[in-house]
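Write out the 3D structure for:
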Amino acid sequence: MTSTEKPVIVIVPGAWHVPAHYAHLALKLNANGYTVDCVESSSTNDEKDLPENTWKADLSIIRNAITSHTEAGRNVAVVMHSFGGLAGSEAAYGLGKKENETSGSVIQLIYMAAFMLKEGENPIDFDWPRIAVPDNEQSPKSLYVPDPKQYFYHDVPEQMSQRAIDNLGGHPIAHAFNRPAKVAWREIPTAYIICEDDRALPIGPQEQMIDAVKAEGINVETMTLKASHSPFLSMPGETAKAIRGFLEKA
């Protein structure tokens, strides 16, 4: 890969989210010459017979999506949203640039209102909002968000937010208790898009995670958007601009 080629952007969705949720953002990035590959994890299954735990399967899916590009000689930027930050942090571990390596590598991690935690940590360890409950009627093994408009899409136009709600999948209860064994932000340049009007993962917890990583001696570049938990829908142009800004410095 030459220094002038743009990295492939691999998007790791948040819980309940599928690639369709990020289509507007992908189009904005495509218009600026970026190839975008959005992962569809096994944990968005919304059937009653959900697997007990999809963590390992999701790690493999994310890692394979990344290495399909790096092994072909392309550099990759991993953009993680919400719960996708937990799995993406581990899945990207070890894929940064190695000395004298000629193949592609992960050159940038970008967390977007996402969980950026240390090894062995899980959101349940912190006194943060709990927005999901067991879906006892439809999918007993699944968690669901009773008011996704309020928590995910309060600043998204009505027709678009309803389409996003209709596209939401499931999230296995067991999956929500996993903890990364390794975290890629220790070895790969890292950035964070702060969403200051987020009602699912408020700005306080976002800044708490950033400060904790910085306390480990890691530099975290930040950009703040006046957006909900879903800037890829409420302001896809500004979100794409923030991502481009990080990548142009990489």
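DSSP finds eight helices and eight strands in the chain.
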